Amino acid sequence: MTFTAFILLGFFSMLGMIIMGLPIATSMAFVGILGGLAAYGLPFINSIAPVVWGVHNDSLLTAIPLFVMMGELLLRSGIADRMFGAIGAWLGRLPGGLLHANIGCSALFAATSGSSVATAATVGTVALPSLHRRGYRMSSALGSIAAGGTLGILIPPSVNLIVYGSLTDTSIGQLFMAGLIPGLLLAGFFMLWVLIQALVEGNTQREPKVPLMERIRLLKDLIPPGVVFLVVMGSLYSGFATATESAALGLTCALFFCWRSGRLDWTLLQNCFVQTARTSGMILLIMTAAFILNLAIGLTGVAEAMTAWVTSFGLSATATLLMLLMFYLIVGMFMDVMSLMVATVPITFPIVVALGVDPVWFGIFIVIMCELGLITPPVGMNLFVVHGIRPDKGSIRDAIIGAVPYVIVLLLFSLLMIAVPSLATWLPQAMR
Question: How does it assemble (predicted)?
């Protein structure tokens, strides 16, 4: 068996185990350990412990449970409910009505959550009952919430960007800043699609006009998420705090606003702690398995071999990125986005860097590919999340149909990112 065939066998074996339902961390660790044993024998086992210890001894990863906890507090304290009401009052008069509020609320909650699934679940829980009562078409409602939820891993703070930065040794601060403009632009493009769809279909459904003074009064409900975002990003980019310390400051602000809401009690805290532990444990287990796999990849020279093989074709950076776009679109249909990232970045990152692609820009590109995976069947997690909380108990087909236009928007936006890389690189460079 050639070296290339050995690499492909390992990758597709891991993909097959994931598709069959084996835990993601187990699949990656199994392939990594088996590959390492095949190449180096039992001494490979001795090298795993220092790697695992090094992963969990990295203070940067402490930011993950802090950001997850921050989003949980804002959700369970009722702040997200009031946030949706305020945004709906301002955007509900546009053609498409509250579908714009779905996107806007998702973008704002993404700035405090760091998780796409949490964003989709939060906005869906708040918005879907209201949309159902008002007679909105369920496929459009589900699609807008599923797509808006993807902004949770692009608009900073983002757990996926933290994981990418840890895997590639890229500045978390630079990645957060790079995700800001693409995240806001993508939210704008989603809202533009809602507007175009409403005008083309002749659907002029709008919400009743809210008096200006009432809309101004409701702006106070946007203060908590806005303050949390400013504290996190401001402390990070002013140099006052590291990524982990800024997460702790954001969590402190979230606790304060939760206390001000009158809902802070032991039951709420217990629920937040349990959910945070579940989510963080899942992420860290996957990362541990990913680093075991990365160890095997590094020691066996897989990344170097794949880089040499791809560059031998003489493809330009743009052509390579277009190939990766198709690759991630297809593979993302069958893999969870976190496993998609940690399983492929160790191989694709050296290839694109060798072609001169900016590591920070590639981090945003990878996250957009993960966003595609979140709303493409059969394993689009956001589709299952919004379907699970819909009030009318219809078919998941509605969620899939509603998400298709947003998949196209994401693909077009990816092409725009490739054509104009400064959309992601300008702000980090300007802030240096």
Answer: The complex comprises the extracytoplasmic solute receptor protein and the two transmembrane proteins.
